[in-house]
Amino acid sequence: MILHVDMDAFYASVEIRDRPELAGRPVIVGGSPDGRGVVAAASYAARRFGIHSAMPAAQARRLCPQAVFLPPRMAHYAEISRQIRAIFERYTPIVEPLSLDEAFLDVRGSEKLFGPSDQVGRRIKNDIRRELNLVASVGVAPNKFLAKLASDLHKPDGFVVVDQEGIEAFLDPLPVSRLWGVGNVTERTLHQLGLRTIGQLRRLPRDWLVRHFGQLGEHLWRLSRGRDERPVHAARQAKSVSHETTFAHDIGDPLVLRAWLRSLAEQVGFRLRQSQYRGRTVLIKVRYGDFTTITRSHTLAEATDITDDLWRRAGQLFERLLPLRAPVRLLGVGVADLQRAQQQQPDLFGEAPAARQQELDRVADAIRARFGKRALRRGAAPD
Q1: Which residues are annotated as catalytic?
Q2: Potential cystine with 336: which of 1, 204, 242, 281 (Cβ 3.0-4.6 Å)?
């Protein structure tokens, strides 16, 4: 059995935990009250007004004028994420983090020590609540797809177990939009064909689905039966550092997308410097509303951990892709070809400008860690 543990409204929940006077109020992390930027996270009280991540802050303010806007504190969230990871590793070494706030765990080898998988999941959930005063939703199932779906089903504070015999009963009543790979376009097409639930889709022949949807049809046929053979990959020595976000709603506004790209580049730069890595290859990943995924990369002359370098290269790659299609479902920035920072050979002709940028990043990291992300803004970067 596989566990998927997902922290509920993680950034917003951390802020409310640290400031109990905000309990019950609509809290938005990211953006600003004057309408600049985008929403990074919203508390469940804010979500009742229709606010979601990736929404422009100006729209969020219109939907909920009384919302409390707070700057993200990425270093603080990363530290709490490490504490959560330590709880996971009490029960299994096979942990595959997906982001700061969610991970897959393979606990099959731990059952002799800690009991059945559902008991392990319950213990982890209780440990997180007792030790960190935060709430996690947990899904327990035979594979990754089902475990992630289960963890999301009864948020917040969910706990859902799907056993092998109950897969069809679990999946059949769910809407087809719950299948990984079904975006807005595919969902509309399925609805036009009279297919609204996974159960209805599951009853169709494989050949029919492949004929109508190509490779995606084979994928949907397998998922509608709860099949997913992907293993949980334990963390290994870093080969790349990346950060990506899947938007609650597809985004076509180039200004909003560029704001997200800048934020992702800053987070990747921060993680590189924290882990004392530099990288030569900058990558971006764009997944469109029809689920087409495109990656592009650029290899630099020298490895870097400088945020400005990452942002400029990622922005150039993004500009080449943006005219191709819209809207965007997922956006990611990464750096590969890593080397330890101390291994990099100095550039005699570019050392002084690079040193100034490194010092700027060092000071910016320290300020943001203490006062939040918006405590310091990059004047050269677009809003």
Answers
A1: 102
A2: 281
